[in-house]
Automatic annotation (TrEMBL):
GO molecular function: 2 iron, 2 sulfur cluster binding; dioxygenase activity; metal ion binding; monooxygenase activity; oxidoreductase activity, acting on paired donors, with incorporation or reduction of molecular oxygen
Start and end residues of each Rieske domain: 23-127
Keyword match Membrane: no
Matches recorded under InterPro entries: Cholesterol_7-desaturase, Rieske_2Fe-2S, Rieske_2Fe-2S_sf, VanA_C_cat
Coiled coil: none
Species this chain originates from: Corynebacterium kalidii
UniProt keyword annotations, A-Z: 2Fe-2S, Dioxygenase, Iron, Iron-sulfur, Metal-binding, Oxidoreductase
PANTHER family xref list: 3-KETOSTEROID-9-ALPHA-MONOOXYGENASE, OXYGENASE COMPONENT, IRON-SULFUR DOMAIN CONTAINING PROTEIN
Protein name (Swiss-Prot/TrEMBL): Aromatic ring-hydroxylating dioxygenase subunit alpha
Length: 356
C-alpha cells in the first residue's frame, strides 16, 4: 500500500479553515455540469466535482495519486476521471481503476484519493468531511423548513472575502439588523435597545431578544443536525405578499482562511395559488432587495481586519457569538489531536480524513 499526501491539520488550521466531522453545503448543484469537471477550494483544500453518467455527483481531492498532478485537468470518463499527465484513472470512490501505461500496476484497485460522500438537496451539493477515514458519516437531517411541503424556498449563494466564522457570527448577531439594515423594508421597525437570552433546543440553541418579539430580526436558532445551520424569521409587511414571516436557512462553507461561501435559502409558508403568487413577487420585486441586504453584510464583514476578533470589547448582545467561539475552538482542539497521528504517519495504505 502506498503513502500519499496528508496535510497537517493543526488546531488553528481547523479553526480558520473549517471544522471536520460534519456535512457542509459545498456549492450550488448548478456548479456541476454534465460531462465537465469543476474545481473548487473548500476547507483550505482543492477538490474536483463531476457528475457520473447516471447524474450522481462525485467529489475528489484535486490530486492524482500517481505524481500529484491536478485532477481538475483530467478527462471526464463517465464514472471516473483520467489524469492528463499519465492517464491514471480514478473513480468516484477515490479508487485507482486503471493505469494505462502499466496495466496490472500495484496501485490499481487501491483507494488512494480522498473522496467525501456527497448528497444533493434543495439545489445544493453537500459533502461529509470527517476525521476518521474508516468511520461512517454522521446522519444528516436536512433543515426542516426546506423539507416541509408547505414551504417554498429560493437558494441564494455568494462568496465573501472574509473568514467563515465572521459570516456565521453575523447570523448569530440579531442586533446588527436594527442598525446595518435599518433601511430595509423588513427591518426598519423595532427598538434599538434590547436584552438577549440563550435558550437551549433539542438540536442547538436559540439566541433571542427577551423584550421584543415579532418586530424585527429578533431571534436565531443555531442547529446541528449533521450539518451546522441557522434558522431565523423576519416579520414581513402585508405588502410583501402571502405567507407571513420571511424565513431564512443559512449555512456557511469555509473556502480558505480568508474566504467563505454563504448559502441562504429564503422561504415562506405558502401552498397552492398563493405559492405561485409569492414566487412571482419574489423574483420580480423582493429578490433585488434581499441582495441589497446581503451586500451590506458583505461590505461590512470584508471591511473588518482578519484579526478583528483579537481586540474586541464584547457585551451582553454578543452571548451567542461567544458561545459558538468556545464551542468551535474546543472542537478544533479535539479534532487536531485526532488527526495528528494520520498526518505524522502519512496515513499509509488508506485514504485520510474526509474519505468515503
Amino acid at each position: 500500500m502506498a503513502n500519499y499526501y496528508t496535510p497537517e491539520f493543526s488546531e488553528d488550521f481547523l479553526y480558520k479553515n473549517g471544522l471536520r466531522d460534519r456535512w457542509y453545503a459545498v456549492c450550488p448543484s448548478s456548479f456541476v455540469e454534465h460531462g465537465r469537471i469543476r474545481k473548487i477550494r473548500r476547507l483550505g483544500q482543492d477538490w474536483i466535482l463531476y457528475r457520473e453518467t447516471t447524474g450522481a455527483v462525485r467529489m475528489l481531492e484535486d490530486r492524482c495519486p500517481h505524481r500529484g498532478a491536478p485532477l481538475n485537468q483530467a478527462t471526464h470518463l463517465g464514472d471516473r476521471v483520467g489524469c492528463k499527465y499519465h492517464g491514471v484513472q480514478v473513480d468516484g470512490t477515490g479508487t485507482v481503476r486503471s493505469v494505462p501505461g502499466m496495466p496490472g500496476c500495484e496501485i490499481e484497485g487501491q483507494r488512494l484519493v480522498t473522496a467525501p460522500q456527497v448528497k444533493e438537496f434543495a439545489g445544493a451539493v453537500f459533502a461529509w468531511f470527517g476525521t476518521d477515514a474508516d468511520a461512517e458519516p454522521a446522519e444528516l437531517t436536512f433543515p426542516d423548513p426546506l423539507t416541509d411541503e408547505g414551504t417554498s424556498a429560493f437558494l441564494c449563494y455568494a462568496e465573501w472575502g472574509v473568514n467563515w466564522r465572521f459570516a456565521l457570527e453575523n447570523l448569530l448577531d440579531p442586533m446588527h439588523g436594527t442598525f446595518l439594515h435599518h433601511e430595509s423594508h423588513s427591518m426598519s421597525e423595532g427598538d434599538t435597545k434590547a436584552k438577549f437570552q440563550i435558550r437551549e433546543s433539542d438540536r442547538g440553541f436559540f439566541f433571542e431578544k427577551t423584550d421584543q418579539v415579532g418586530v424585527n430580526f429578533d431571534w436565531v436558532e443555531l442547529c446541528h443536525t449533521g450539518a451546522d445551520w441557522v434558522d431565523l424569521s423576519i416579520p414581513y409587511p402585508a405588502s410583501a405578499g402571502p405567507g407571513g414571516s420571511f424565513g431564512i436557512v443559512g449555512m456557511v462553507i469555509p473556502i480558505d482562511d480568508e474566504t467563505c461561501g454563504v448559502f441562504f435559502w429564503r422561504y415562506r409558508q405558502v401552498t397552492g395559488w398563493l405559492r405561485d403568487t409569492w414566487r412571482f413577487l419574489y423574483r420580480t420585486t423582493l429578490e433585488p432587495r434581499h441582495w441589497h441586504v446581503l451586500e451590506q453584510d458583505r461590505v461590512m464583514l470584508e471591511g473588518m481586519a482578519p484579526d478583528a476578533d483579537a481586540a474586541e470589547n464584547l457585551y451582553q448582545h454578543d452571548l451567542g457569538v461567544m458561545r459558538i467561539r468556545r464551542l468551535f475552538r474546543k472542537q478544533a482542539k479535539k479534532q487536531a489531536k485526532a488527526l495528528a497521528p494520520a498526518a505524522a504517519q502519512g496515513t499509509a495504505g488508506r485514504p485520510r480524513a474526509g474519505t468515503a
